[in-house]
Input
Amino acid sequence: MKNKILIYILGGSFVVFVLSVIFSEPLRFGVCRNIYTWIPQNDGVEVTGCSDDTGIAQAPGMFSFIVFLLSLILLFLHKEIFQSWKIFTYWWLPISFLFILGAPSSGGGSIGIGGSIDREIVTWWFAGLFLVISLILIIYKSIKLRGK
Output
C-alpha cells in the first residue's frame, strides 16, 4: 500500500513540476497570453517578451521537485518512516502555501538591496526548510527503527 501511494505521489509531483516549468517559461512553450514586442533604443534589436504572471508557478514547482526526490528516498524505507513524513507533509504544505500567498509579490528596494521580504524569498525559505526538516525526520526515524 505504501509503495502504491508513493508511486501516485511520484507521478503527481512529476506532472506538477513539468507544468510549473511550462508556465514559468510561457513564451518558450507557446502558452503566453500577453506577448509584447519592444525595441530598445541603444541597439535597435527587437525583443519579445511575455507579460503573464509567471511567479505563481514557482512555489508548486519547487515543492513538487522536493516531494519527488523525497518520495524516491522513501520508496526504499520502512512504512513507519513514510507515515511520519506524510503526517509532517500534510500540515507543512498548506501552512507554507498560506505564507507564500500572503507575502507581497515583489519587495521594494533598489540597486540590489531589498526593502522587504517578497514571495520568492518566502518560497525559497519554506521549500528549503521543508527539505531540511524532512531529511532530519527521515534520518531520525531510520535511526530510531534500527535501534528496535
